[in-house]
Amino acid sequence: MIQSVSRTLNRITKSHQPQIKRLNYYWRLFGTGFSFFTFGAGGFLLWVLVFPVLSIIPGTHESKIRRGQKVVHYSFSLFIGLMHRIGVMTYEIEGLEKLNRPGQLIVANHPTLVDIVFLISRISQASCIVKASLWRNPFMRGPILNAGYISNGDPEIMIDECVQRLQSGGTMIIFPEGTRSVPGKPYRFQRGAASIAIQAHAIVTPVTMSCYPSTLTKAEKWYQIPHRRFHLAMRVGEDIPMQEFTSLQPRSIAVRRFNSYLQEYFTRQRALYEQHGK
User: Fold this and answer.
1) End-to-end CA distance of the chain
2) Count of domains forming the chain
3) What is the pTM of this model?
4) Residue 11 domain-assigned?
């Protein structure tokens, strides 16, 4: 009797699989759109309601930046939790205990639009580099200004500000690519991250991000969602021994060597995770 009922249920499930997959697709499409709407609306509300209140609380400029970073951290944690709970994404983290240290430079690859949000959601106080154009975006302006993020408008000023932030005990997140990766294309790292690391004598920790199936890349619109919910994996590597690079002279050679090291490191990591299909 039980076996008969089980076989019947299996036949019903199989016959309705196309409809179930279609419903799942449209639900994830709705969930993705809703997530983006929530992200934008949340950023705007932080700008007009939350940050003005924080700005009137007494404190130094640095303490106000730390407050802003905390607010962004918790907001991004809620956003990632929302995407996970409504079935848009899953995630895993390996080595989180190696992060959240003063004066730490976190270098990461950049496979998807969501990875910076995910990183900040796991690091309680961190600065990052943002495109100069985002400073005029009403949905991003509040978090950018109040969390002390650094504009890439002037490369020399950008590097100096990043070095100062690290030397004062702050944490930085930098994508050496400067933009999102192009799937199937080799990495092309810019030298900004390497230059900052060498000048600041910072703790440098590599973080490998992988996203499967690929989604929200530079070439994809938000509504071009994959056939199933995407899985974001964050793997924190060991600190990179910097003595062999910082001891090189002149500095330009040290920067070039370290940039090559980073590019080769992340190329190996990507090949490893692609080989294992994760």
Assistant:
1) 41
2) 1
3) 0.88
4) no
